TrEMBL record:
Species in which this protein is naturally found: Photobacterium frigidiphilum
Coiled coil regions in record: 43-77
PANTHER family on file: ATP-DEPENDENT ZINC PROTEASE DOMAIN-CONTAINING PROTEIN-RELATED, ZN_PROTEASE DOMAIN-CONTAINING PROTEIN
InterPro entries: Asp_endopeptidase, Peptidase_aspartic_dom_sf
Record's protein name: Retropepsin-like aspartic endopeptidase domain-containing protein
Matches recorded under SUPFAM superfamilies: Acid proteases
């Protein structure tokens, strides 16, 4: 009886060992298969990447070959084309070319804000202000006297001006009265009655007869003021400049505007 029991126990243990070994073997096979599949997938991926890289390298080689052909073609063209020689051209300015005259623009004289004028009646230069805001022209007149000559009204006055260094002595002028005007000053409510005379002046190439309103301008900077009636059709004004025309010589005066 005891022998039979030992035999059964031995058989049972051997059977259990066999089952355990069989299970471990299956798990090992499964793990090996799984690893094999993973390795195969990695190999396929690497193979695909290598193929793509080879294809890219082949494309680059084709492009390099094309560029090389283009370079050879351009080099051949450069070597075989005739050379273009550019000769220097010397431009000679004609001796008779005249410099730009800044005193004239569009056929008109250019005046600055201040100019020298020559007054024929006293044969002397005076500084004049070119006033684009004034309509009429004005002339300094001190010690003004009205008298009659040949049945007409005349005036006698002193033109000298304290601020004009050219006036060394009294400049007495006598001229017929062309008309009378009323001028209202800012310091007075009543209009002052003033005579108007005509006088020949020269400014640059301009030689014109100008109507002047006589007024005491000793407190002002300029003994002469030229308004728009003088220059509206014959001159342009650049208020940013001064003495553009300079001091004109009376013998060089143009008589075309007389």
């Amino acid at each position: 009886m005891l022998r039979r029991s030992l035999t059964l126990l031995t058989l049972t243990m051997l059977s259990g060992c066999t089952l355990t070994q069989s299970k471990n073997h299956e798990e090992t096979l499964i793990a090996i298969n799984t690893m094999e599949k993973s390795v195969n997938i990695q190999l396929e991926t690497m193979t695909q990447q290598i193929n793509e890289q080879n294809e890219h390298i082949a494309n680059l080689e084709n492009e390099l070959s094309s560029v090389s052909k283009d370079v050879k073609f351009v080099k051949h063209k450069v070597l075989t084309q005739p050379k273009l020689v550019v000769e220097k051209q010397v431009i000679t300015i004609p001796a008779e070319a005249k410099p730009i005259d800044i005193k004239v623009a569009n056929g008109k004289a250019v005046l600055g804000q201040e100019e020298w004028i020559w007054l024929d009646s006293v044969k002397q230069h005076f500084k004049a202000r070119i006033d684009t805001g004034a309509t009429t022209s004005s002339l300094n007149a001190v010690d003004l006297q009205v008298f009659e000559r040949d049945g007409k009204e005349w005036v006698r006055f002193n033109l000298s001006h304290l601020n004009d260094e050219t006036s060394k002595k009294p400049e007495i002028i006598e001229a017929p009265v062309v008309r009378w005007v009323k001028v209202r000053q800012s310091t007075s409510e009543e209009a002052a009655r003033r005579p108007v005379i005509e006088a020949w002046i020269q400014l640059g190439s301009l030689h014109e007869k100008v109507q002047f309103t006589l007024a005491d301008r000793t407190q002002m900077t300029y003994p002469v003021l030229l308004g728009r009636e003088f220059f509206k059709d014959i001159a342009l004004v650049d208020v940013g400049k001064q003495f553009i025309q300079g001091k004109s010589q009376p013998e060089a005066a143009s008589k075309t505007n007389n």
